[in-house]
Design a protein that fits this description.
This protein is of the alpha+beta class. The chain contains three helices and five strands; from the N terminus they run ααβββαββ. 45% of the residues lie in helices and 34% in strands.
């Protein structure tokens, strides 16, 4: 009788261990899709700026909007907006690197546009909007 009880407990523990591995895999997958959990919104914004300046030093940061925090019942949607200038290859390369290598937040929108500088020449901009989610704990 005791053997059966211990055996059932051991099986239960093994099932939970397998479940934990599955949950860890799911969390890793979700982190990849919606941005890492457990990182403050200020760290995310600083990470965006650092990533841009380290990976594309030839690109200039034109504008960085304040962090927008939209609270929901169970989580917060954190939005950051970065506007950079450069040539088309530089901007495409930066966007590609953000998409492939940056894991603190995800790009949800990109917009290329031009502005005239001193009415003489056009400057190419890339506005990127990033979002990540924080649980309300």
């Amino acid at each position: 009788m005791e053997y059966r009880t211990l055996s059932n407990k051991a099986n239960d523990i093994n099932k939970k261990a397998k479940n934990t591995a599955g949950l860890t895999k799911d969390i890793t997958y979700l982190d990849k899709i919606i941005g890492k959990e457990g990182v403050t919104k200020e760290m995310v914004q600083q990470g965006i700026v650092s990533f841009a300046s380290e990976n594309s030093p030839e690109v200039s940061i034109s504008d960085l909007k304040p962090i927008h925090d939209f609270p929901e019942d169970d989580y917060h949607i954190i939005t950051n907006q970065l506007d950079v200038t450069g040539n088309s290859n530089q901007l495409l390369n930066l966007a590609y690197n953000f998409e492939k290598k940056f894991n603190l937040s995800r790009i949800v929108s990109m917009n290329f546009y031009t502005t005239k500088k001193n009415n003489k020449y056009e400057v190419l901009h890339l506005k990127m909007i990033f979002q990540n989610y924080e649980n309300n704990k």
